[in-house]
Amino acid sequence: MSKTIIVSNRLPVKISVENGQYVYSPSEGGLATGLGSIYREGENVWIGWPGLEVSEPEKQEEVIRNLKKMKLLPVFLSEEEISEYYEGFSNEILWPIFHYYASTYTNYQQTNWNFYQLVNQKFRDAILSIAEPGDKIWIHDYQLLLLPGMVRTEQAELTIGFFLHIPFPSYEMFRLIPWRAELLEGMIGADLVGFHTYDDAQHFLNAAVRILPINSSSNILTVDDRPVVAEAFPMGIDFEKYSSFTSDRIVLEQIRLLKENFTDKKIILSVDRLDYSKGILQRLAAFELLLELYPQYIGQVVLYMIVVPSRDTVPQYKQLKDQIDKKVGNINAYYRTLDWSPILYFYRSFSIETLSALYHVADVGLVTPMRDGMNLVSKEYVASRTNNDGVLILSEMAGASKELIDALIVNPNNIGDMTRAIDKALNMTLAEQEVSMKELRKIVSQFNIFHWVKIYMDKLKEVKELQRSLKSRHVDLDIGKSI
User: Which of 3, 94, 210, 288 is the most exposed place for a label (fewest CB within 10 A)?
Assistant: First the structure.
Protein backbone atom coordinates (compact mmCIF):
# COMPACT_ATOMS: atom_id res chain seq x y z
CA MET A 1 0.00 0.00 0.00
CA SER A 2 1.36 3.42 -0.98
CA LYS A 3 2.27 5.94 1.73
CA THR A 4 2.84 9.66 2.11
CA ILE A 5 6.25 10.85 3.28
CA ILE A 6 6.35 14.38 4.70
CA VAL A 7 9.76 16.06 4.76
CA SER A 8 10.72 19.28 6.55
CA ASN A 9 13.82 20.73 8.18
CA ARG A 10 12.43 20.03 11.67
CA LEU A 11 10.34 17.16 12.98
CA PRO A 12 6.98 17.98 14.62
CA VAL A 13 8.40 17.18 18.06
CA LYS A 14 10.81 18.98 20.36
CA ILE A 15 13.54 16.83 21.89
CA SER A 16 15.30 17.96 25.05
CA VAL A 17 17.65 16.30 27.50
CA GLU A 18 16.59 16.03 31.16
CA ASN A 19 18.70 14.13 33.70
CA GLY A 20 20.60 12.50 30.85
CA GLN A 21 17.40 11.23 29.19
CA TYR A 22 15.74 12.36 25.97
CA VAL A 23 12.31 13.93 26.47
CA TYR A 24 9.91 14.25 23.54
CA SER A 25 7.15 16.87 23.39
CA PRO A 26 4.85 17.73 20.46
CA SER A 27 5.38 20.93 18.50
CA GLU A 28 2.52 23.46 18.46
CA GLY A 29 3.38 24.88 15.05
CA GLY A 30 0.77 25.27 12.32
CA LEU A 31 2.49 22.81 10.00
CA ALA A 32 2.63 20.14 12.70
CA THR A 33 -1.09 20.62 13.37
CA GLY A 34 -2.14 20.47 9.74
CA LEU A 35 0.01 17.58 8.67
CA GLY A 36 -0.69 15.59 11.82
CA SER A 37 -3.79 14.26 10.10
CA ILE A 38 -1.56 12.83 7.34
CA TYR A 39 1.58 11.40 8.89
CA ARG A 40 -0.25 9.52 11.65
CA GLU A 41 -2.33 7.55 9.12
CA GLY A 42 -1.44 4.13 7.73
CA GLU A 43 2.24 3.66 6.91
CA ASN A 44 2.90 7.39 6.50
CA VAL A 45 6.12 8.93 7.88
CA TRP A 46 7.54 12.38 8.66
CA ILE A 47 11.28 12.94 8.03
CA GLY A 48 13.25 15.79 9.62
CA TRP A 49 16.05 16.94 11.89
CA PRO A 50 15.30 16.19 15.59
CA GLY A 51 16.50 19.63 16.73
CA LEU A 52 19.69 18.71 18.57
CA GLU A 53 23.00 17.06 17.77
CA VAL A 54 23.09 13.33 18.47
CA SER A 55 26.55 12.07 17.51
CA GLU A 56 26.96 8.78 19.38
CA PRO A 57 25.70 5.75 17.35
CA GLU A 58 23.96 4.12 20.33
CA LYS A 59 22.18 7.40 21.15
CA GLN A 60 21.12 7.74 17.53
CA GLU A 61 19.66 4.23 17.64
CA GLU A 62 17.73 5.14 20.78
CA VAL A 63 16.29 8.28 19.16
CA ILE A 64 15.40 6.35 15.99
CA ARG A 65 13.56 3.69 18.03
CA ASN A 66 11.61 6.24 20.06
CA LEU A 67 10.69 8.39 17.07
CA LYS A 68 9.63 5.36 15.01
CA LYS A 69 6.80 4.78 17.50
CA MET A 70 5.58 8.29 16.59
CA LYS A 71 5.95 7.58 12.83
CA LEU A 72 8.92 9.92 12.59
CA LEU A 73 12.32 9.34 10.96
CA PRO A 74 15.24 11.57 12.05
CA VAL A 75 18.01 13.00 9.89
CA PHE A 76 20.99 13.56 12.18
CA LEU A 77 23.07 16.68 11.57
CA SER A 78 26.33 17.79 13.14
CA GLU A 79 26.85 21.24 14.65
CA GLU A 80 28.97 22.17 11.63
CA GLU A 81 26.22 21.10 9.23
CA ILE A 82 23.62 23.13 11.13
CA SER A 83 25.95 26.14 11.20
CA GLU A 84 26.73 26.01 7.47
CA TYR A 85 23.50 24.68 5.93
CA TYR A 86 20.89 26.18 8.25
CA GLU A 87 22.41 29.26 9.86
CA GLY A 88 24.65 29.94 6.88
CA PHE A 89 23.01 29.18 3.54
CA SER A 90 19.35 29.02 4.57
CA ASN A 91 19.28 32.03 6.90
CA GLU A 92 22.11 34.26 5.66
CA ILE A 93 21.54 33.81 1.92
CA LEU A 94 18.05 32.50 1.13
CA TRP A 95 16.11 34.18 3.95
CA PRO A 96 17.27 37.77 3.29
CA ILE A 97 16.98 37.50 -0.49
CA PHE A 98 13.54 35.90 -0.36
CA HIS A 99 12.45 38.71 2.01
CA TYR A 100 13.99 41.47 -0.16
CA TYR A 101 16.90 42.31 2.16
CA ALA A 102 19.69 41.13 -0.13
CA SER A 103 22.14 44.02 -0.02
CA THR A 104 22.03 44.44 3.75
CA TYR A 105 22.01 40.95 5.13
CA THR A 106 23.11 38.44 2.47
CA ASN A 107 26.43 36.72 3.05
CA TYR A 108 27.56 34.47 0.16
CA GLN A 109 30.00 31.74 1.16
CA GLN A 110 30.98 28.72 -0.93
CA THR A 111 31.21 26.49 2.15
CA ASN A 112 27.59 27.32 3.01
CA TRP A 113 26.54 26.13 -0.45
CA ASN A 114 28.64 22.98 -0.17
CA PHE A 115 26.96 22.04 3.11
CA TYR A 116 23.50 22.98 1.79
CA GLN A 117 23.98 20.40 -0.97
CA LEU A 118 25.39 17.85 1.48
CA VAL A 119 22.47 18.15 3.92
CA ASN A 120 19.89 18.01 1.12
CA GLN A 121 21.62 14.78 0.03
CA LYS A 122 21.24 13.42 3.58
CA PHE A 123 17.51 14.11 3.42
CA ARG A 124 17.39 12.47 -0.03
CA ASP A 125 19.05 9.33 1.35
CA ALA A 126 16.55 9.23 4.23
CA ILE A 127 13.65 9.42 1.76
CA LEU A 128 15.11 6.76 -0.54
CA SER A 129 15.66 4.42 2.42
CA ILE A 130 11.89 4.09 2.86
CA ALA A 131 10.31 5.26 -0.43
CA GLU A 132 8.58 2.72 -2.65
CA PRO A 133 6.86 2.96 -6.05
CA GLY A 134 3.50 4.70 -5.70
CA ASP A 135 4.50 6.75 -2.64
CA LYS A 136 3.84 10.48 -2.36
CA ILE A 137 6.61 12.77 -1.07
CA TRP A 138 5.64 16.24 0.27
CA ILE A 139 8.71 18.41 0.86
CA HIS A 140 8.53 21.71 2.75
CA ASP A 141 10.33 25.03 2.69
CA TYR A 142 13.46 26.91 1.73
CA GLN A 143 15.94 24.71 3.61
CA LEU A 144 15.23 21.87 1.14
CA LEU A 145 14.98 23.53 -2.28
CA LEU A 146 17.35 21.01 -3.89
CA LEU A 147 15.60 17.96 -2.51
CA PRO A 148 12.78 17.43 -5.06
CA GLY A 149 15.28 17.29 -7.93
CA MET A 150 17.63 15.00 -6.03
CA VAL A 151 14.81 12.53 -5.32
CA ARG A 152 13.48 12.77 -8.90
CA THR A 153 16.93 11.84 -10.29
CA GLU A 154 16.93 8.63 -8.24
CA GLN A 155 13.25 7.64 -8.51
CA ALA A 156 11.66 9.37 -11.47
CA GLU A 157 8.18 7.88 -11.04
CA LEU A 158 7.53 9.06 -7.48
CA THR A 159 4.86 11.67 -6.84
CA ILE A 160 6.69 14.69 -5.40
CA GLY A 161 5.14 17.85 -4.01
CA PHE A 162 6.98 20.91 -2.72
CA PHE A 163 5.66 23.86 -0.71
CA LEU A 164 7.49 27.13 0.01
CA HIS A 165 6.36 28.79 3.24
CA ILE A 166 8.17 32.09 2.72
CA PRO A 167 7.81 34.59 -0.17
CA PHE A 168 9.44 33.83 -3.51
CA PRO A 169 11.28 36.98 -4.64
CA SER A 170 11.09 38.78 -7.95
CA TYR A 171 13.47 37.69 -10.71
CA GLU A 172 15.71 40.72 -10.12
CA MET A 173 16.25 39.63 -6.51
CA PHE A 174 16.47 35.90 -7.11
CA ARG A 175 19.06 36.23 -9.89
CA LEU A 176 21.53 37.66 -7.33
CA ILE A 177 22.05 34.16 -5.88
CA PRO A 178 25.18 32.58 -7.41
CA TRP A 179 23.54 29.12 -7.37
CA ARG A 180 20.15 30.27 -8.70
CA ALA A 181 19.92 27.72 -11.56
CA GLU A 182 20.71 24.79 -9.27
CA LEU A 183 18.03 25.90 -6.79
CA LEU A 184 15.41 26.12 -9.53
CA GLU A 185 16.43 22.74 -10.95
CA GLY A 186 15.88 21.33 -7.49
CA MET A 187 12.41 22.87 -7.18
CA ILE A 188 11.21 21.70 -10.60
CA GLY A 189 11.95 18.14 -9.57
CA ALA A 190 8.53 18.38 -7.90
CA ASP A 191 5.29 17.71 -9.76
CA LEU A 192 3.49 20.51 -7.91
CA VAL A 193 5.23 23.58 -6.48
CA GLY A 194 3.01 25.38 -3.96
CA PHE A 195 3.13 28.95 -2.64
CA HIS A 196 1.00 31.06 -0.32
CA THR A 197 0.11 33.69 -2.92
CA TYR A 198 -0.43 34.09 -6.66
CA ASP A 199 2.38 36.69 -6.80
CA ASP A 200 4.90 34.21 -5.35
CA ALA A 201 3.91 31.58 -7.93
CA GLN A 202 4.32 34.13 -10.75
CA HIS A 203 7.75 35.22 -9.48
CA PHE A 204 8.84 31.56 -9.47
CA LEU A 205 7.53 30.91 -12.99
CA ASN A 206 9.20 34.07 -14.29
CA ALA A 207 12.55 33.16 -12.70
CA ALA A 208 12.37 29.58 -14.02
CA VAL A 209 11.80 30.49 -17.68
CA ARG A 210 14.40 33.28 -17.62
CA ILE A 211 17.15 31.29 -15.92
CA LEU A 212 16.53 27.72 -17.15
CA PRO A 213 16.07 26.43 -20.72
CA ILE A 214 12.40 25.55 -20.16
CA ASN A 215 9.07 26.91 -21.36
CA SER A 216 5.85 27.72 -19.57
CA SER A 217 2.21 28.00 -20.48
CA SER A 218 -0.01 29.71 -17.93
CA ASN A 219 1.09 28.15 -14.62
CA ILE A 220 2.67 25.02 -16.11
CA LEU A 221 6.37 24.50 -16.77
CA THR A 222 7.40 21.79 -19.22
CA VAL A 223 10.44 19.91 -17.90
CA ASP A 224 11.61 17.08 -20.20
CA ASP A 225 8.02 16.55 -21.40
CA ARG A 226 6.86 16.45 -17.76
CA PRO A 227 4.38 19.19 -16.78
CA VAL A 228 5.25 20.89 -13.46
CA VAL A 229 2.47 23.02 -11.99
CA ALA A 230 3.06 26.12 -9.83
CA GLU A 231 0.04 27.32 -7.87
CA ALA A 232 -1.05 29.30 -4.82
CA PHE A 233 -2.46 27.51 -1.76
CA PRO A 234 -2.96 30.02 1.10
CA MET A 235 -2.23 28.21 4.36
CA GLY A 236 -4.77 28.34 7.18
CA ILE A 237 -4.80 27.53 10.89
CA ASP A 238 -6.77 25.17 13.11
CA PHE A 239 -9.69 27.58 13.55
CA GLU A 240 -11.64 25.37 15.95
CA LYS A 241 -8.63 24.95 18.20
CA TYR A 242 -8.07 28.69 18.65
CA SER A 243 -11.77 29.43 18.83
CA SER A 244 -12.37 26.80 21.54
CA PHE A 245 -9.41 27.97 23.63
CA THR A 246 -11.48 30.93 24.79
CA SER A 247 -13.70 28.58 26.81
CA ASP A 248 -10.75 26.75 28.40
CA ARG A 249 -10.58 27.14 32.20
CA ILE A 250 -6.94 28.30 32.24
CA VAL A 251 -7.52 30.76 29.40
CA LEU A 252 -10.70 32.13 31.01
CA GLU A 253 -8.77 32.87 34.21
CA GLN A 254 -6.09 34.70 32.25
CA ILE A 255 -8.75 36.66 30.36
CA ARG A 256 -10.26 37.70 33.68
CA LEU A 257 -6.89 38.88 35.01
CA LEU A 258 -6.10 40.82 31.84
CA LYS A 259 -9.45 42.61 31.97
CA GLU A 260 -8.86 43.43 35.64
CA ASN A 261 -5.39 44.84 34.93
CA PHE A 262 -6.44 46.87 31.92
CA THR A 263 -9.75 48.31 33.06
CA ASP A 264 -10.67 51.36 30.93
CA LYS A 265 -7.59 50.91 28.73
CA LYS A 266 -7.41 49.78 25.12
CA ILE A 267 -4.87 47.03 24.30
CA ILE A 268 -2.96 46.92 21.01
CA LEU A 269 -1.32 43.50 20.62
CA SER A 270 1.88 42.81 18.68
CA VAL A 271 3.35 39.27 18.51
CA ASP A 272 6.47 38.47 16.46
CA ARG A 273 9.61 36.44 16.30
CA LEU A 274 12.76 38.59 16.40
CA ASP A 275 13.47 39.22 12.72
CA TYR A 276 14.20 42.18 10.48
CA SER A 277 11.37 41.13 8.14
CA LYS A 278 8.71 41.66 10.83
CA GLY A 279 8.71 45.49 10.81
CA ILE A 280 8.95 45.83 14.60
CA LEU A 281 10.87 49.13 14.59
CA GLN A 282 8.45 50.68 12.09
CA ARG A 283 5.53 49.57 14.26
CA LEU A 284 7.09 51.25 17.29
CA ALA A 285 7.61 54.43 15.28
CA ALA A 286 3.92 54.42 14.30
CA PHE A 287 2.84 53.98 17.92
CA GLU A 288 5.16 56.80 19.03
CA LEU A 289 3.66 59.06 16.36
CA LEU A 290 0.18 58.14 17.60
CA LEU A 291 1.01 59.41 21.09
CA GLU A 292 2.55 62.56 19.62
CA LEU A 293 -0.31 63.43 17.26
CA TYR A 294 -3.18 62.21 19.45
CA PRO A 295 -2.28 63.06 23.07
CA GLN A 296 -5.76 61.95 24.18
CA TYR A 297 -4.44 58.36 24.02
CA ILE A 298 -1.82 59.02 26.70
CA GLY A 299 -2.79 56.90 29.70
CA GLN A 300 -5.59 55.26 27.70
CA VAL A 301 -3.82 52.87 25.31
CA VAL A 302 -1.21 50.15 25.87
CA LEU A 303 0.96 48.47 23.23
CA TYR A 304 1.40 44.90 24.51
CA MET A 305 4.43 43.79 22.51
CA ILE A 306 5.78 40.23 22.53
CA VAL A 307 9.02 39.48 20.69
CA VAL A 308 10.01 35.83 20.67
CA PRO A 309 13.81 35.31 20.86
CA SER A 310 15.44 34.17 17.64
CA ARG A 311 19.12 34.01 16.61
CA ASP A 312 20.04 36.93 18.87
CA THR A 313 23.69 35.85 18.90
CA VAL A 314 23.90 36.66 15.17
CA PRO A 315 25.23 40.25 14.81
CA GLN A 316 22.33 41.59 12.68
CA TYR A 317 19.73 40.14 15.05
CA LYS A 318 21.58 41.32 18.15
CA GLN A 319 21.72 44.81 16.64
CA LEU A 320 17.99 44.68 15.89
CA LYS A 321 17.20 43.63 19.46
CA ASP A 322 19.35 46.48 20.79
CA GLN A 323 17.47 48.94 18.55
CA ILE A 324 14.11 47.62 19.74
CA ASP A 325 15.19 47.80 23.40
CA LYS A 326 16.36 51.37 22.93
CA LYS A 327 13.23 52.48 21.07
CA VAL A 328 10.90 50.96 23.67
CA GLY A 329 12.94 52.52 26.46
CA ASN A 330 12.83 55.97 24.85
CA ILE A 331 9.06 55.91 24.28
CA ASN A 332 8.35 54.65 27.80
CA ALA A 333 10.74 57.16 29.36
CA TYR A 334 9.14 60.09 27.53
CA TYR A 335 5.43 59.23 27.91
CA ARG A 336 5.24 57.14 31.09
CA THR A 337 3.06 58.40 33.95
CA LEU A 338 2.88 57.29 37.58
CA ASP A 339 0.27 54.61 36.83
CA TRP A 340 0.76 53.90 33.12
CA SER A 341 3.47 52.70 30.71
CA PRO A 342 2.68 53.02 27.01
CA ILE A 343 4.53 49.83 26.00
CA LEU A 344 4.59 46.52 27.85
CA TYR A 345 7.50 44.75 26.18
CA PHE A 346 8.23 41.04 26.64
CA TYR A 347 11.28 39.42 25.05
CA ARG A 348 10.30 35.78 25.51
CA SER A 349 7.86 33.18 24.26
CA PHE A 350 4.41 32.73 25.79
CA SER A 351 2.29 29.62 26.22
CA ILE A 352 -0.49 29.08 23.73
CA GLU A 353 -3.03 29.59 26.56
CA THR A 354 -1.61 33.03 27.41
CA LEU A 355 -1.50 34.01 23.74
CA SER A 356 -5.09 32.88 23.33
CA ALA A 357 -6.18 35.08 26.25
CA LEU A 358 -4.30 38.05 24.80
CA TYR A 359 -5.77 37.47 21.33
CA HIS A 360 -9.25 37.39 22.87
CA VAL A 361 -8.83 40.52 25.00
CA ALA A 362 -6.77 42.83 22.74
CA ASP A 363 -8.84 45.55 21.09
CA VAL A 364 -6.45 45.76 18.13
CA GLY A 365 -4.24 43.12 16.55
CA LEU A 366 -1.28 44.92 14.96
CA VAL A 367 0.40 42.68 12.37
CA THR A 368 2.64 44.71 10.07
CA PRO A 369 5.57 42.69 8.67
CA MET A 370 7.75 44.22 5.96
CA ARG A 371 7.44 40.94 4.06
CA ASP A 372 5.83 37.64 5.05
CA GLY A 373 4.85 34.49 3.20
CA MET A 374 1.52 34.21 5.00
CA ASN A 375 1.59 35.28 8.70
CA LEU A 376 -0.56 33.03 10.82
CA VAL A 377 -0.63 35.39 13.85
CA SER A 378 -3.23 37.46 12.00
CA LYS A 379 -5.43 34.38 11.57
CA GLU A 380 -4.91 33.25 15.18
CA TYR A 381 -6.07 36.69 16.37
CA VAL A 382 -9.21 36.46 14.22
CA ALA A 383 -10.00 32.89 15.31
CA SER A 384 -9.78 33.97 18.97
CA ARG A 385 -12.33 36.80 18.57
CA THR A 386 -15.33 34.69 19.54
CA ASN A 387 -17.34 37.82 20.44
CA ASN A 388 -16.93 39.12 16.88
CA ASP A 389 -15.28 42.30 18.11
CA GLY A 390 -11.76 43.71 17.77
CA VAL A 391 -9.90 45.14 14.78
CA LEU A 392 -7.09 43.58 12.76
CA ILE A 393 -4.51 45.92 11.23
CA LEU A 394 -2.58 43.96 8.61
CA SER A 395 0.39 44.70 6.36
CA GLU A 396 -0.25 44.49 2.64
CA MET A 397 3.15 42.75 2.44
CA ALA A 398 1.84 39.70 4.33
CA GLY A 399 0.37 36.89 2.25
CA ALA A 400 -2.66 36.86 4.57
CA SER A 401 -3.69 40.31 3.28
CA LYS A 402 -4.82 38.71 0.00
CA GLU A 403 -7.49 36.79 1.93
CA LEU A 404 -8.26 38.99 4.96
CA ILE A 405 -9.43 41.97 2.95
CA ASP A 406 -11.81 43.14 5.71
CA ALA A 407 -8.84 44.01 7.92
CA LEU A 408 -7.40 47.54 7.91
CA ILE A 409 -4.66 47.04 5.29
CA VAL A 410 -1.56 49.22 5.61
CA ASN A 411 1.81 49.77 3.95
CA PRO A 412 4.37 48.99 6.70
CA ASN A 413 6.83 51.43 5.14
CA ASN A 414 4.34 54.28 5.63
CA ILE A 415 4.52 55.23 9.32
CA GLY A 416 1.75 57.82 8.98
CA ASP A 417 -0.51 55.27 7.29
CA MET A 418 -0.06 52.86 10.20
CA THR A 419 -0.65 55.62 12.76
CA ARG A 420 -3.91 56.63 11.07
CA ALA A 421 -4.99 53.00 10.93
CA ILE A 422 -4.39 52.60 14.69
CA ASP A 423 -6.41 55.75 15.38
CA LYS A 424 -9.23 54.49 13.15
CA ALA A 425 -9.18 51.06 14.82
CA LEU A 426 -9.40 52.56 18.30
CA ASN A 427 -12.43 54.61 17.28
CA MET A 428 -14.43 51.98 15.41
CA THR A 429 -17.85 51.35 16.90
CA LEU A 430 -18.77 47.87 18.08
CA ALA A 431 -21.15 47.55 15.13
CA GLU A 432 -18.36 48.39 12.68
CA GLN A 433 -16.04 45.93 14.39
CA GLU A 434 -18.63 43.16 14.19
CA VAL A 435 -19.21 43.67 10.46
CA SER A 436 -15.52 43.24 9.57
CA MET A 437 -14.73 40.58 12.18
CA LYS A 438 -17.60 38.32 11.13
CA GLU A 439 -16.30 38.36 7.56
CA LEU A 440 -12.73 37.70 8.71
CA ARG A 441 -13.82 34.81 10.90
CA LYS A 442 -15.82 33.31 8.04
CA ILE A 443 -12.70 33.28 5.82
CA VAL A 444 -10.37 31.90 8.51
CA SER A 445 -12.91 29.24 9.48
CA GLN A 446 -13.60 28.08 5.94
CA PHE A 447 -10.03 28.10 4.63
CA ASN A 448 -8.45 26.37 7.61
CA ILE A 449 -5.33 24.22 7.84
CA PHE A 450 -7.22 21.01 6.99
CA HIS A 451 -8.72 22.62 3.89
CA TRP A 452 -5.19 23.67 2.87
CA VAL A 453 -3.88 20.12 3.17
CA LYS A 454 -6.82 18.71 1.23
CA ILE A 455 -6.70 21.10 -1.73
CA TYR A 456 -2.93 20.69 -2.05
CA MET A 457 -3.06 16.90 -2.01
CA ASP A 458 -6.04 16.84 -4.40
CA LYS A 459 -4.11 19.07 -6.81
CA LEU A 460 -1.00 16.89 -6.54
CA LYS A 461 -3.09 13.88 -7.53
CA GLU A 462 -4.60 15.84 -10.42
CA VAL A 463 -1.15 16.87 -11.70
CA LYS A 464 0.07 13.28 -11.59
CA GLU A 465 -2.97 12.15 -13.59
CA LEU A 466 -2.26 14.92 -16.14
CA GLN A 467 1.31 13.65 -16.51
CA ARG A 468 0.13 10.09 -17.04
CA SER A 469 -2.42 11.10 -19.67
CA LEU A 470 0.20 13.13 -21.58
CA LYS A 471 2.64 10.26 -21.35
CA SER A 472 0.13 7.76 -22.73
CA ARG A 473 -0.75 10.21 -25.52
CA HIS A 474 2.94 10.41 -26.50
CA VAL A 475 3.15 6.61 -26.51
CA ASP A 476 0.05 6.39 -28.77
CA LEU A 477 1.56 8.94 -31.16
CA ASP A 478 4.84 7.04 -31.29
CA ILE A 479 3.00 3.80 -32.06
CA GLY A 480 1.01 5.56 -34.78
CA LYS A 481 4.18 6.87 -36.39
CA SER A 482 5.81 3.42 -36.39
CA ILE A 483 2.74 1.89 -38.04
Answer: 210
